[in-house]
Each structure stands twice: as structure tokens, then as C-alpha cells.
Amino acid sequence: MQQRKIVVDKIEKEMRNLNNKRIGILGLAFKQNTDDIRESAAIDIIQMLLQQGAMIQCFDPKAMENTKKVLPELTYCKDEYETAKDADALVILTEWDQFRNLDFNKIKRLMKRHEYGLYFQPFIFDMKNLYEPEKFKKLDFKYYGSGRS
């Protein structure tokens, strides 16, 4: 549970305030290729984000029906791109293969941008380290990986 809190603390620290922030969550299952949400880090992280006042929109290829039973108040999206639309941040919490090849130029156009220094950049929190940080630097995202900065 402490590791899950560290994830939420990292998101809150970088975004400065989660109240009324729209957070897109990719991945709800405890691991890819299953609809099982028992022991899912995503469920605990989402609950902590909600306690901080965040609004959650999410997508998972298989686990949304099970998650709706536990967290009916979330906004459930049809795909990754709808999840990114108007999101203040995008958080990857399950290692689905289909998340590895997303069109991040499209995602960047869909997301809100936040002032970071002299630039306005969308936030990506890659808690599964699916991506290389350099890719996001080139795309002008503010990228955070697990154990990376």
C-alpha cells in the first residue's frame, strides 16, 4: 500500500493540486490479459486520487465491467484516446501491450497542457515504464516513470 501511496504523492507533487483535476487512467486490472481487479494497484491508486478531489476517466481492455461494480462513479471511456481527451494527466497503471504503441502526437493534441517553466506540456505518469523517457522529451511531454524522473 505504501508503494501505491508513493505513486499518488508523486502525481500530487508534480501537479501541485489534484482537486478538480481530470486524471486519465490506462489500466485497471492487476495485470495484463485479465479482467481481475483483486489486488489491483489501480483500484487503490484511483481511490486515493478521488480522496484528493481528482476526477477519473479510465480505460482497460477487459477490466472495466468489474471495476464499475466497485467504482461506479468513474467515467469509463471507449479507448485510450477518449481517456486522454481533456485530461490534465495520463497515468499508465497496467502493462497492456496495446498501450505500448499509442499515437502520442494525437494524445498530446487531446490532453490539456500545463505550464511548466516557459512551456505548456501535458503530464504522463508511466508507472509501468512502458516507454523510453527520451521519446516523450522529443514530443514535449512532462514524463515521469516509476523510479525515473
List the topology elements.
Elements: H1 2-15, E1 22-26, H2 41-51, E2 55-59, H3 64-70, E3 75-76, H4 80-84, E4 89-92, H5 104-110, E5 114-116, E6 119-121, E7 123-126, H6 133-138, E8 142-145
Parallel strand pairs: 1-2, 1-4, 2-3, 4-7, 7-8
Antiparallel strand pairs: 5-6
Helix pairs in contact: 1-2
Please describe what this structure looks like.
The chain is α/β, with parallel strands linked by helices and 149 residues long. The protein has one domain (2-145): Rossmann fold. The chain is built from six helices and eight strands; from the N terminus they run H-E-H-E-H-E-H-E-H-E-E-E-H-E. It has helices at residues 2-15, 41-51, 64-70, 80-84, 104-110, 133-138, and strands spanning 22-26, 55-59, 75-76, 89-92, 114-116, 119-121, 123-126, 142-145. Helix 1 (2-15) packs across helix 2 (41-51). The longest helix is centred in the N-terminal third of the chain and has 14 residues, at 2-15. The protein is globular and about 40 Å long. The two termini are 21 Å apart. The mean pLDDT is 91.
The helix count comes to: 6
Q: Mind telling me the C-alpha Rg?
A: 14 Å
Q: Hey, roughly how much beta strand do the residues contain?
A: 15-25%
Which strand order spans the largest sheet, edge to edge or round the barrel? 3-2-1-4-7-8
Number of β-strand runs = 8
Q: What kind of oligomer do you see?
A: single chain
Short overview:
With 149 residues, the chain is an alpha/beta fold. The chain has 6 helices and 8 strands. The chain has helices at residues 2-15, 41-51, 64-70, 80-84, 104-110, 133-138, and strands at residues 22-26, 55-59, 75-76, 89-92, 114-116, 119-121, 123-126, 142-145.
